[in-house]
Structure formats: C-alpha cells, structure tokens
Amino acid sequence: MTPPDDPQDVPATDFGPPEDDLQRLWTPHRMVYIGGEDKPADATAKACPFCRIPRGDDEDGLVVARGEVCFALLNLYPYNGGHLMVLPYRHVSDYTDLTDAEIHELAAMTQTAMRVLRQVYSPAGFNLGMNQGEVAGAGIAAHLHQHVVPRWLGDANFLPVVGRTKALPELLADTRERLAAAWPAV
What we know:
Layout: H1 31-34, H2 49-52, H3 58-61, E1 63-66, E2 70-74, E3 84-88, H4 100-121, E4 125-129, E5 146-151, H5 158-162, H6 172-182
Antiparallel strand pairs: 1-2, 2-3, 3-5, 4-5
C-alpha cells in the first residue's frame, strides 16, 4: 500500500496488526505510569516526587492548594477527572506517624477538596482513601497521601472494565486551574 499524502486519510483499520472485530482506544501516555517513571527507587525524601513537587511551580506540579503542613495536588494518573490527593509536606509513610497538626490539616483539606469538587464538578459521591504500603496498593508508599476521587453515576462504564482504559473529559492543567480558582483562601 502506498502511503497517502495526508496520514489522516488512513482509516484506523489499516493500522493492524489485530485482525478481529474490536476497536481500540490507544492511551500511550499511560506507559510512563506502567513503567514507573518518577516513582522513587528508594524511600528517601531526596528521591520522592511528593517532596520535590511543593518546591516547584504550582501549575507544573499540579498543586491545587497549600496549607501550613499539608497540600493538595492532582493525581498525575487519575482514576477519574478531578482526582486529588492531600498529603503532608513532611516525608512520612505511615498514618500513625503523623503529627496532630498534620492529621488535623489532612482531614480539613480533604473536606475542602470535597466541597470544591462538588462546587466545580457536581459529583454524585466520592471515594476517599489511602493505601498504606506497597502491598496495599500505594504507588509511592514512602510518602503518605489521601486520595479524593469524585464519582458520578455511570462513570465506571465498559472502558475500564473491558478495555482497561479510563477516558477523562479534561486536561489536567485545566482541572488544576479550575479547582485552584475555586479553593477558598486560608
């Protein structure tokens, strides 16, 4: 087959190799997550992206809000649009090692995250949680983080179940901008 003048003219069915009746939604951006890019090889604060991010620019780091001892940022690999994480600045892995100030601000920022997400996106519910340890599912187990995942009726459609793919309706930079603008001043 001779390549067309405009690659847009090639139907997706000509890109093989699968010869079946399935269509595919390609998400190559997920390969950095699968490959562990930016995941610290060791448990030190020096290698931790969650320790590095607050030292940089909020937009570049997807930081939505900052408190005295905790901050909120978007998950770079979200389960749903608006998926936030609330975490202490301090490099600590276990919930039982948080200070009283960190516990209080982590809880308060989680409440604020839910309020802001309701205001901006009107989710029907939330999944809240933290995975303590790699065996429990923590992607970065060395730095505790609380997930705040907005949920909508029907958001768990066939794509993640059958296609192992999540469709997100908005770019992370746009989500960060909207949530940061709606976050109340402290």
